[in-house]
Amino acid sequence: MAKRLGRRTIALDPPVYLSAHAAIVGQKEGEGPLQGTFDLVSGDTHFGQKTWELAEANMQRIAIETAAGKAGLSVADFDMILAGDLLNQCIGSSLASVRSNVPFVGLYGACSTMAEGLAVGSCLMNSGAARCLCAAASSHFCSAERQYRFPLAYGGQRTPTAQWTATAAGAAVLTDQKTPVRVTHVVFGQIVDMDVTDANNMGAAMAPAAYDTLSHLFEDTNTQPSDYDRILTGDLARVGSRLLRDLFARDQIDLGQPYDDCGVLLYGSAQDVHAGGSGCGCSAAVLCGDILDRMERGALHRVIFAGTGALMSPTSVQQGQGIGGICHAVILEGA
Amino acid sequence: MAKRLGRRTIALDPPVYLSAHAAIVGQKEGEGPLQGTFDLVSGDTHFGQKTWELAEANMQRIAIETAAGKAGLSVADFDMILAGDLLNQCIGSSLASVRSNVPFVGLYGACSTMAEGLAVGSCLMNSGAARCLCAAASSHFCSAERQYRFPLAYGGQRTPTAQWTATAAGAAVLTDQKTPVRVTHVVFGQIVDMDVTDANNMGAAMAPAAYDTLSHLFEDTNTQPSDYDRILTGDLARVGSRLLRDLFARDQIDLGQPYDDCGVLLYGSAQDVHAGGSGCGCSAAVLCGDILDRMERGALHRVIFAGTGALMSPTSVQQGQGIGGICHAVILEGA
Fold this sequence. Notes:
2 copies of one chain form a homodimer.
Chain A: E1 3-5, E2 9-26, H1 27-30, E3 40-42, H2 52-70, E4 80-85, H3 91-97, E5 104-106, H4 113-127, E6 132-139, H5 141-148, E7 164-165, E8 168-175, E9 181-187, H6 202-221, E10 230-234, H7 237-250, E11 259-261, H8 262-265, E12 277-278, H9 280-297, E13 302-311, H10 314-318, E14 324-333
Parallel strand pairs in A: 2-3, 4-5, 4-6, 7-12, 10-11, 10-13
Antiparallel strand pairs in A: 1-2, 2-8, 2-9, 6-8, 9-14, 13-14
Helix pairs in contact in A: 2-3, 6-7
């Protein structure tokens, strides 16, 4: 049974174990600083499909199947799949799991989706509703760019605060069988809207939500940043992660060395992604590649994975609505 | 702890209690056969707002606040809100809960969202992750019509199989305190795609998914349709619900008198809605108005609420993709 700890945090008892994970990315992501940590780098941006939507769906499906395979399972062994993406009506995830014959729980948390899936999935595991499930998320530069901003061929200028939607998918398998890496705590975030209305500055829109969730997490668990080997947000990128450090500095809390952001980690400084990466797949692929690999090897012991999402649609932005940020977090413990 | 029963069904132990519910609808819905069962019928389609998206958000917010009030709570007392809608990036639900200061779990299940929220929420309650939460869903004819089909002013013709998106929202409060109505079982559905590609025939796309989920439910619980006072799908409307009866008839199972569909129930035959109602708010408002009222009064004892969703986007339909159906179900027991 999960136990509520303080105002926000949920302590899992027993912890929920991660038995496998997979990260699938596009060429650009595969050429960044995390090269060598992905299960597949596709040279074909279409992932063998004729539309960008099917490309994203296929990428997410490959991530789920790869994770299942690495866990020694087939997809049909999952009690359920929890997944989401950025596309209208989350069509990437629906198309990814349409032939799975596995119960499907659709989530929408914008770029926080991987963390939302791990958080909801961990609680479902603790309830006994599932003994083994898969949480997955994806994004694709080409499907997102066309939907959120401009047709690709238009070649629109980007502002310095803009983020680059990663072509990436991640999937993680949760199980009740003991493995070296486990989810010990979960924090569901509330929506925080500081009246940021610029869709090209999502980092600023999301940083206050990350601050809110992480503040509660530290308080509820009576821990501080230095108690963790890594505190990862995903994806505030350079602008938002600086803001997050500033917000904590006001409380005399230094996020310090452990803190980093998946949107900063995924691309190198020469890769022309402006403020950094974004998209559900960005944090999903960084977690389900490099981070969980390192936790399994014992190189990282205690990690906060805090997914951050910007809750807006092109319509809401055109109508001048503020962009609400949200941040769901999980605490992972390794070998 | 929840227990898995057979291949798909999850038995909740203890059951999860429903302490309050609210249904908010537009004028057309308020003039239908269920008039008098709603908490508010708004004569103003804009719900006091300047855009359709804000109108839908405000309607959902009123549903959540009304449900909280009827439970003797304020919204801040919820451990979390689980909500979703049909709008791109589920913006209706985000805007509805942006000032709630309550952890928010975004769901996407198309018109199955109310059932998905009750199902996920019930398992979260059973895990101990929440002691009291709110599940909500909404749809608005004007925001949906513009997004999925044509600008309202265009006055496009509708096919006889088309469904009418309800302007409606429902919210239900789940609690661990005993009340007369409880959720006893949950079934998460898998996506079923029978290659229906006509977005004006969603009933046909969803009926096979409803058949799949309900078949498992009957088998896992060793029950038959006549064991229930009501078996409600939402929203297959007239075309889809006839198909569902046919699919069960092939197995020599008669859904019989208990079976009905929220999309059929919401509107009268003179209301010109073609095949019937649809939209996340349709089944949400029928359940959170008439059905739960009758369960509390003891007029209905055992009810299956099976939310059905068509997993498609305008883009996927234009690209010729099949429309996957999904159906999540809960079994409710009353006084």
